[in-house]
Amino acid sequence: MGLGILSQVTVMAQTNRHNNLGAQEHLWKMKKISAHEFIGVGNSGSVVKYNDSCNDWLPLPAGTSNDDFRNISFPTGSTGYISGPANAFYKTTNGGTSWTAIPASITGLTNASIQCVHFRTATTGFIAGSQIGVSGGGRFIKKTTDGGLTWTTVTPAAGMGTSTVYDMAFFAADTGIAVATNNQAFRTTDNGNTWTAVATPATVYSVAVAGANTAIAVANGNIIRSTDRGLTWASVSGAATGMQGVHFYDDTHGMITGSAGAVLYTSDAGLTWTAIPTLLSQKLYDVQMTSATTAVAVGAEGQALSIDINQPFHRLFEEHFCHPTDSMTYTRYTNTDNSLAAPARKWFFTNVNESENGLEAAGWFPGKFAIYDAYYYEEVRAQHHSDSAFIETRSLNLAGTTQLSLDWNEAFYTHPDGLTRTRVQGFNGTDWITLYQSNGLDMGDGVASAVFPDHKRAIDISALAGVANAKLRFSYAAPNTNDGLKNFWAVSDIVISNRSVALQLDSLNAAGNGNVTECLPIAAQDIKVKMSNTGNLGVFPVELGWSSSDGQAGKTGTYGELAATSSANYVLIDNFTPPAAGGAITIKAWIRNMPNQNAVNDTITKTFYFTPDAGTTALLGNDTAICPGGSYTLHAPATLNSPLWSDGSNAASYTVNGAGTYWLQGVYGTTCAVSDTIHITLINVPVPVITATGDLLQVGSNVYASYQWFRNNVALPNSNSAQIVVTQAGSYTVKAITAAGCEVISTAYIYNPGGTGTKDLQIEKGMLILFPNPALTEITAYTGDESGGKYQVTIIDIIGKNILNSVFHSKTNSITFDVSNLSPGVYQVILSNEKQNRTGRFVKK
Asked: Which CATH superfamily is domain 22-155 in?
């Protein structure tokens, strides 16, 4: 069944960072547990509860930060289970407020990765997955009928193989389907007591039922559909990549989520799908429909969004929250009131009239401005960019000052497009100049976020020092995205003083290695930066950018205050990964969006030398084999100083033409001596031996990938075969090519129609006929000289070493010599006397 792409609905979705998850913390699965409550699970021990009526996420601690929860099942609103790798398996009976581990001693599993947990009722449920360290991966399906107190193995007697079950769904009857890897699923018709393997068109990670007989399953770029309760499956063309979540609200209405914020919607039980555009670039891993047209989805980097196909926009971030008495209290930010107001003010936002913008200050330097808390909350849909708010002070007399600093409290919402900004401008008596601009506290993940700082922002504004009619303007601008997203901004507690703001970067070092820059191991490790605040005003926040000479780059920040006249070490790069070959890597760090008085110290660089341990293959790579007569070029790393090859050369590369052991030595930096050895062998390529049956010539070896036959050294057309039928007399040879690309040419076979072959014809000049070929104990050389004579016989192995060099006397046209002591392989024979000099090759079995 093909996928019908209907006209796109103008649907936009926005992210919500209330869950406080980081850039690498992903929400894999989610279940609805009540009318407005959902629980999502993910890696780093993430378990969060969401209420879609007031848009708030709350953490529900379960397990440890090392747990990677992959699945969740809530048969009732209070009873639920979560599971994942490393025997991670927990149960709650109070809606997720607290969790109890179900140990491996109860499930009987060994180091299990419990990828699937599915409970039909509060007592009857299933788990499935694989076991590390168990033969064949230990794939399993287990069942409980007492709420997880005991478990019985119901794994199919045959058919699981290497297929790991990832998800499960049941129809109204006792028929269920467990989808798995390797294009396979498992089906039960007796409530999971027994299971039978069924084939699917693709590997599947998620499955959902739509009515009494229909099921839809997805994985990556595949949508598959069954209309007979999972007995047979057919592919449905997909319109998205990375599809991993699927859910149906009823018999006909369903949604699928995938990469780059993909959302697909169906209203005909999965026959056709409509793409729902969002603002996201992150992958959405799961979706739960809340009605026939609405849903909640979660995904990578802690993303969460609501979806309503009947609205022109969707949002989670609104002006009301589930816990207004304490506003928003999150781990990353605290709500310390810096205004000394009584009662203490909380950071939350309400709509205000735009006429309140442009408030004037009642006081000026050196005290605190009496600017009212300016809360700005605007819906920018159908408005233009310049409508965003600003607050401007009255004229300030800053005459007589030489250095000035500004600090203030601020909170605002940023859009993910990077166009949202706050700006501080100053009037210097003639022009307005920009003193500071920020696009928000970027966590390094590029995700829009609300900012609730617990420290003041602080900048140097000495550009206004000495000005008798200076002014300050604080502004907030949000883009007209026409998506109905609401923007908010608050600024308060503005202070001008004659204190200084001065930041500088002091040093870079590899964590655990102090300031040592030479001879670091080739392993991922933190790179730290030491930063100093030499001024007498604390600074918040501090954002840093970095790049490395091998093309890596990133940004980071510290969101705690760097106190005045203090210094601190910060992780600039978390687990910097050097190139596999190591070498000299220069890392550069700089201060971002932080004006200060020490611009010369805003940037710092340092070179680190990553050196391989002895015995590794970091320089030359793994041992390899080449074709006989072939070559292989070895390359020294570009940053290696003074390279020295085993032949005494110092070039950047070294080409070898035969088997042997080769080495390279050199130095990283000035003191980090490194070396590596590589062993090169020759691929054993048997020489094809032509045999004849009448007019049919053939070679018997099956190690060749292609052939080319020749007659009298002229290539025969259309002869890519192990055998040919010949009709003309002549000398026939065949060139055989192995799958590795090695070429080898057979000895000649002299064919004469109606004759007896080689021994009845005059041998072409220079050709030595050897038989039997291949040989086991002895071999005969056909000289072509019926009178016999004395011959010098030389045998050379494949690397050019003389194995035999002897004189033989013969009274006939042949010489027989012993080869039983030779090692298996290909050898060349040279037979010569004063009349002739012939060569040939044979294979020793």
From this structure: YVTN repeat-like/Quinoprotein amine dehydrogenase (2.130.10.10)
Where do the domains of the chain lie?
22-155, 346-497, 503-611, 624-682, 690-751, 769-844
Q: 3-class SS at 326? A: helix
State the residue for tokens 């025997």: 87
Unique residue bearing structure tokens 């499955």: 207
Q: Give the three-state DSSP class for 219.
A: strand
For residue 28, pLDDT over 60 is answered with: yes
Q: Which helix (H) or strand (E) holds 664?
A: strand 660-668
413 CB-near residues (< 8 Å, 6+ apart): 317, 420, 448, 449, 450, 451, 478, 486, 487, 488, 489
Amino acid at 409: N
As its CATH architecture, domain 346-497 has: Sandwich (2.60)
- What number of other Cβ atoms are within 10 A of residue 251's Cβ? 14
Section 443-466 average pLDDT: 67
Q: What is the DSSP letter of 183?
A: T
pLDDT band at 341 (very low <50, low <70, confident <90, very high): very low
Tokens 């649907």 belong to which residue?
A: 11
Higher per-residue confidence, 343 vs 265: 265
Provide the Cα torsion 97, 98, 99, 100; round to 10°: -150
The pLDDT value given to residue 65: 77
Say which residue the tokens 């004063």 belong to: 834
Q: How far is CA 209 from CA 186, 277, 813, in A?
A: 15, 25, 84
Q: Judge contact between 146 and 124, C-beta under 8 A.
A: no
